Amino acid sequence: MIKKIAENIWQIEKEGKMNVPITVYASEQLLEKIKQDKTLEQAKNMAMMTGVVKHVVVLPDSHQGYGACIGGVSAYDLNKGVISPGQTGYDINCGVRLLALNLSKKEFLKKREQVLNDLYKTVPSGVGKGSELKFNDKELDEILEKGLQWAFDKGYATKEDVEHIEDKGRIEGADASKVSQKAKARGRDQLGTIGSGNHFLEIQEVEEIFDKKISNIFGLENEGQIVVMIHTGSRGLGHQTASDYIHKMEKEYGFKDLPDRELACAPIESRLGKEYRAAMAAAANFAFVNRQFITYQVRKSFEKYFPGTRVKVVYDIAHNIAKFEEFEIDGKKVILCVHRKGATRSLGPGRIEISKDYRKVGQPIFIPGSMGTASYVLVGTEKAREISFASTAHGAGRLLSRTYAKNNLSSDKIIKNLKERDIMIKAGSKKGVLEEAPEAYKDVNEVVRVSNELGIGNIVAKLRPLAVMKG
Amino acid sequence: MKKQKFEFFEHTADIKFRAYGKNLEEAFENSASAFSFHVSRGGKIKSNKIKEINLEGADLEALFYGFLDELIYLLDAEGFIVVKAKLSIDENKLKGKLYGDEVKKYKDLDHVKAATYAEMYLKKVKTGWEVQAVLDV
Fold first, then answer.
1. B22-136 is classed in which CATH architecture?
2. A128 vs B65, B109, B115: nearest CB
3. Are A225 and B122 in contact (CB under 8 A)?
4. B130 to chain A nearest CA, in Å?
5. Are A344 and A392 a contacting pair, CB within 8 Å?
6. Which of A393, A432, B66, B136 would disulfide-bridge B114, Cβ 3.0–4.6 Å?
7. Across A262-277, average pLDDT
């Protein structure tokens, strides 16, 4: 039974084998959609896990995933709890990076096609399109352990880039020896690539600023300013790492007592739990460097067509990851292992985890819309720490299956529709475009509105796409 | 009427398929065809290369997961896309051959991130075996 607690807040009380209740943050309209698939069933399974505390959080963009739902957050006690790859997703540190340019829309539009074509060549997307960058074993291990520090040492990143990335692009405790050879083989030539599915690179304009003071601090200074949004993750290396550890965990700890085999897990403080933590950190560092290489190419492209353009990293956030963060439970300060799967961290003003440039106002949050629709910049809040384990939504959230999209929509119509709204697209596959049709997603405006109304992520600016690149 | 080898089902974000066979081997082989159908977006893949496969799982589900995981690994790490499989399964051990081609020869391919245990089952039915899996894409 789900009951309304307050505007946009719903609760499923503890029942059966659940250890904690579930809190759903959604408007009535979004909840109706959430109820249509297995989202809440999966949230109930998450609530049955050992050592889970307070409640399982279901965010406005939630939809059915595998094991845990997408848009689901759960936090574990370090002594009694578990770490579970299926609750963070196979794409470890799938995330979003935003770059701000000192370039106006008016200028950009003059060479839009050239820039897009150039990026399509230098930032590989789709299947089997490896990167030009090849690394030997030693270099790959260094990338996994040092993350952005490696990129900085080699001249692929500036000092300011490093400062403007979650965990400075290097999660401590990463151990390359805990990542299998198989995972390394899958990821080896994928650094600097987008991949396929819902991943993309978009050139956008700042369409509307809602909070002038904060947007200025983020480097989003005026409407019509060009920004670049990158959405990708740890590619095959991360996917294989999650698969490897699901097998290791079910082998060591079994799965018969779990509500779903996909939720295979290990106690956080066990040997295997610690090994996964080290492997996950390595895969996350790989993803940060992946987005850094793409940034490097974006800088080269803009330098080519608009010499002297400054490309600043606004921020880089991970929306598939487990983190160790401090919360207050029953009046006591405790460190919890927070699993975010399709959920963005939302830290309010003052938190030391945030780059010092933004510490006064809170952490930047990016919520990309579906292809060809608006994306948003939000800012983290103290309220999120209190009610949603410092988390908010990560995107529009899927609504229709790919099968449905393929059978009922037309790619020509979608491309025509984008063209009518003056959005240029370059994609490797027409069918891929079809699967990512805006109609297949929930309304990002509604997702962001609810986040803002609840105060778990406040709106700063709205971005509109001008050029889209997909696999 | 010839029975379908595999079918795809609705899933909000990922790919769910069911494969059928008169025995378990055939159900696995048809799963490889389903995988190939997804990756090739229904296009034609030639059978120019052969890969040996040899796997073991703790149980049938783990074997099925491991099999799909191997197809993904070959796609990413070795640039090989499967089109057909010829397998033999003994208890929880599988061996056989995968037929397919080099990924780089094809333009319009879709990716798979991982196999999952979500909604997975392998069951004996009147006509043989029926297996189901969800792929993270």
1. 3-Layer(bab) Sandwich (3.55)
2. B109
3. no
4. 19
5. yes
6. B136
7. 98
